[in-house]
Amino acid sequence: MLKNNLFYQHIHILTGENLHLESTGLIVNVPSCCGPLFGKKQGEQSIDLNEVASFVHNILSRKKEYGDTHLDKYGRFDHDKSFLVQNGLDQSPIIDELILDVVKQIGLKARNIWPEGKKAAVCLTHDVDAIDGFSYFWLRKINWYLHRFRAKLDGNQHEANSWISTLKKMIRLKNNIT
User: Which parts of the chain fold into alpha helices (H)?
Assistant: First the structure.
C-alpha cells in the first residue's frame, strides 16, 4: 500500500487489507458511470489499478486546486472549473462507487465503517470566510453581556467581572488591529 495514496488508504479502511503494488498491471473494469473519469468511451472500461489509484488520489486530495490558474477574485479555486463539475459528476458519490466496485472486483469484502453498524454518519461543519477573529464582533459583545448578566443574576460577581474583563480586552485588541 502506498501510505500517501488516498485510494489505497480508503481500501484499507473499508476492508482492513493492505494492497501491495508488486502486482502492477492489475486490470480492473471501471463501471460505465466512471468511464468519463478516465476518458473511456462506451465499452472501453478496462484500466490499470494504479491508474485508478492515481486518479482517485488526485480527486480526493483536490490536487487540481493547488497552484491552479482557475481562481476566483479572492484567489480561491473556482468550483465550477473542477473536473467533476465540468463533467456533470459532482452530484453523486461516484468516487465512493468506484472504490467499492474495485474492492469487489479484486475479491475483498467491504466492512461497515460507521459506528454501531449504522449505514452512514453525518459531520456538520461550517465555512469560515473571514479569519480576522472580529467578524460579527457585535454578536460576540452581546453574548459577553448576556453571560455577565446571567452571572450577576446567579450572584457570581467574580464571573461577571471576568466577562467584562474579556470584553474590554477584546475591544482593545480590535482597536489595535483595525
Answer: 6-15, 49-60, 83-86, 94-105, 137-153, 157-177
Give the whole-angstrom CA distance, residue 17 versus residue 46: 23
- Whether 136 and 128 have beta carbons less than 8 Å apart is answered as no
What is the distance between the alpha carbons of residues 14 and 110, in angstroms, rounded to a whole number?
Answer: 5
Conformation bin of residue 5: beta by default, left when phi > 0, alpha when psi is -120 to 50: beta
Residues β-bridged to residue 28: 47
What is the rounded CA–CA span in Å between residue 171 and residue 177? 10
- pLDDT, mean of each 10-residue run, the chain (178 residues): 77 85 72 75 76 86 72 78 80 86 89 84 76 72 90 92 87 76
Cα 163–chain centre separation: 36
pTM of the model: 0.59
